[in-house]
Amino acid sequence: MKEFFLNLGNLKLNTPLMLSSGTWGWGENLSKFLSLAEIKYSIGALVTKGVSLEPKEGNPPPRIAETPCGLINSIGLENPGIKEFKAKYLPPIKLYEIPVIVNLFGEKIEDFVGLAEELKEEVSGIELNISCPNVEKGGILFSDNPKLVKDLVREVRKIWNSFLAVKLSPVGPVFEVAKSCERAESDALVVANTYPALTVLSFKPLKILKGGLSGPAIKPLTLRLVWELSQRVGLPIIGCGGIITGKDALEYLICGAKAVQIGTANLINPKSVAEIMEELEKLLKTYGLSY
Amino acid sequence: MFEAKVFINQREGGEYYLLGLRVSENLAKKFLPGQFLKIRVSSTLDPLFPRPFTIHAIEGSKLYLLYRVVGKGTQILSKILPEEELKILGPLGKPFPEIKEPYIICAGGAGIAGFGYLLQKTSHLPLKIFYGVRTKEELVRVNFYEKFHVSLTLVTEDGSYGTKGLVTEALEEELENKFKKYKPCLLACGPLPMLKSVLKVAKKYQLKTFLVLETFLACGTGFCRGCVIPLRKGGYTHLCIEGPTFLAEELDLERVFS
Ligand SMILES: Cc1cc2nc3c(=O)[nH]c(=O)nc-3n(C[C@H](O)[C@H](O)[C@H](O)COP(=O)(O)OP(=O)(O)OC[C@H]3O[C@@H](n4cnc5c(N)ncnc54)[C@H](O)[C@@H]3O)c2cc1C
Ligand SMILES: Cc1cc2nc3c(=O)[nH]c(=O)nc-3n(C[C@H](O)[C@H](O)[C@H](O)COP(=O)(O)O)c2cc1C
Ligand code: FES
Predict the structure, then answer these.
(1) What is the pLDDT of residues A32-91, one digit of tens each?
(2) What is the ipTM of this complex?
(3) What does the DSSP assignment read for A151-211?
(4) In sequence order, which residues have a C-beta less than 8 Å from that of residue A275 and are 6 or more positions away?
């Protein structure tokens, strides 16, 4: 295995692949499908499912639907809340001895600060999910307001010294938001979350599902964002969107990403990350590239 | 995921197919009745997700699945030829619960599939099986089910074979006539309207009932949290890890059927 070290702020990665938020449960079944060796060899960091201050039971069914080459999900951020997460879910995840990044979401800036407070000294990093509505600003999405994002990152940064990434929404004023993150001293950008989408489930009675689109269908869109952002923003970029194969991962790395996250692929095949890593290494050799 | 070689994929009648997969004996041994596997029906990106199927029967290293063609994925699956390789993942889900009481199986359409493996493995056979379909051609694998010497009532909606009507009507008639005193459990699998009728019958005779449910699955492994089933006590359970078989009284049935 090739040695890979990447320093993203305080975060050191041994491989360029991370498991993205919400796509590997709470880790309880991970070792059922991946051997410990596969986990260590292929995963650079584990990004947890989104955690909030209070528990959330999530949305009623239907929560997911397949669309051509993609998945629409509306899970509704089902999570046990930060207290139970720390007590019950985090300890077994830490046993993998891989950097753990906790994905956070809140309804207002103080929520994020409160969550970060809870995690001090506990984990390697945090990832702020800004694709959520701000209740203090009439429900506008954080990601729609660059100033709000700047304030958010500044406030969290005050109390959080280790790795801090902001997970961008792929829609809205993406470039301005990215600049705000840079000014507010975020360590990295995760590009990006799912795309707002809709599918018709049945005509009679009319049933639709609104949610976030992920998977291969979004790859060309997010790849373009990674390319453009890497030219315009000084922060390291972690690419995320539709990576299913080693070739997909390499495309992201070549288009400006320093590392990548694997999401929907884990749902298709829980061993995806190991297979992607293997293929990526082969491709790098074939093309004489290094990361 | 594991590679499995197809050795049979034949139409049994109607839109129903029997798929045979050869796997390692070790893997075959891991499956318990009621559990399922996912099959990647194509290496292309559409359909993107492997499709779930219950184990219908196992002989040594041979897994049998019984499936109905309903859409894109099952259509592609029905065209696969013997000797082709398919990627599979399993065993997934929880097995059928251990039922100590006498019990009756009620199956509609493809809902019959999983009970084959139950009959193969269990030492506690059901009292009776009610198996209903729309029309004669859809009654499949009857010879296989008959081998277990369990009373099998075949029901067709159009009366083209066996008892005419709905499978739940036949079930109700049986309970009315003979089983009032025995109070058997019910184990039911089939389309939602059928399960709804099963529950009506169960309520009338106050029978403990297990329902085998279906929903679209993305991961089947507990990774996505997409396959939620509403619970009576509030909140949700996840079909792919806690199911697909549930004790009816634990579910919020109104929401399950809405
Ligand atoms: C745990 C589990 C075990 C299962 N075991 C079996 C089995 O042993 N045998 C079997 O035949 N099926 C089984 N199913 C159902 C099977 O997985 C689906 O029929 C299949 O995934 C449909 O894929 P598709 O691409 O052909 O259809 P899609 O293209 O996904 O759907 C096409 C159309 O069919 C409808 N549809 C989807 N599923 C069903 C269904 N179950 N019945 C009727 N209409 C449907 C959809 O609403 C849509 O309108 C099981 C499902 C689960 C969750
Ligand atoms: C079922 C599901 C749940 C998700 N949950 C979260 C979440 O809790 N927080 C978050 O920031 N992103 C979440 N995401 C988004 C993914 O982490 C990822 O950004 C997105 O799916 C795009 O990558 P992909 O195409 O590789 O899946 C979720 C995605 C899916 C499919
Ligand atoms: S289908 Fe993903 S958790 Fe059940």
Answers:
(1) 999 999 999 999 999 999 999 999 999 999 999 999 999 999 999 999 999 999 999 999
(2) 0.96
(3) HHHHHHHHH--SEEEEEE-SSSSHHHHHHHHHHTT-SEEEE--PEEEEEEEETTTTEEEEE
(4) A246, A269
* Both structure tokens of A111: 């929520």
Stretch B77-92: mean pLDDT, rounded? Answer: 97
What domains does chain B contain, in order, with CATH numbers?
A: 2-91 (2.40.30.10), 103-212 (3.40.50.80)
* Residue linked to tokens 């297990």: B210
pLDDT at A283 over 60: yes
Neighboring chain B residues of A49 at a CB cutoff of 8 Å = 225
Q: How many CB atoms lie within 10 A of CB B239?
A: 25
CA angle, corner A101, sides to A97 and A105, nearest 5?
150
Task: Check pLDDT > 90 for residue A133.
Answer: no
At B112-127, the pLDDT tens digits run 999 999 999 999 999 9
* Chain A residues 32-61 within an 8 A CB cutoff of chain B: 32-33, 49, 57-58, 60-61
Looking at A9-107, which runs of residues are DSSP E strands?
A: 11-13, 17-19, 45-47, 64-67, 70-73, 100-104
Sequence-distant (6+) residues with CB within 8 A of B249 are B208, B209, B232
If one looks up domain A6-58+78-196+213-287 in CATH, what number appears?
3.20.20.70
Q: In the predicted model, is pLDDT for residue A17 greater than 80?
A: yes
Subunit contact A264:B48, Cβ cutoff 8 A = yes
pTM: 0.96
Interface probe for B, chosen from A26, A57, A64 (most Cβ of B below 10 Å), is: A64
| The one-letter amino acid at B64 | Y
Q: How far apart are CA A56 and CA A74, in angstroms?
A: 13
CA of B68 to the centre of ligand 1 (A): 8
- Nearest alpha-carbon partner for B190 in B122, B148, B102, B130: B130
Task: Indicate the domain borders of chain A.
Answer: 6-58+78-196+213-287
Both tokens of A1, joined, read: 């295995």
Specify whether the CB–CB gap between A73 and A131 falls below 8 A: no
Residue B8 has pLDDT above 80, yes or no: yes
Instruction: Give me the torsion for CA of A109, A112, A114, A118, rounded to 10°.
Output: -170
Residue with the two structure tokens 């697909």: B244
CA dist B186 and B177 (Å) reads: 16
**Alpha carbon distance A20, A28 (integer Å):** 15
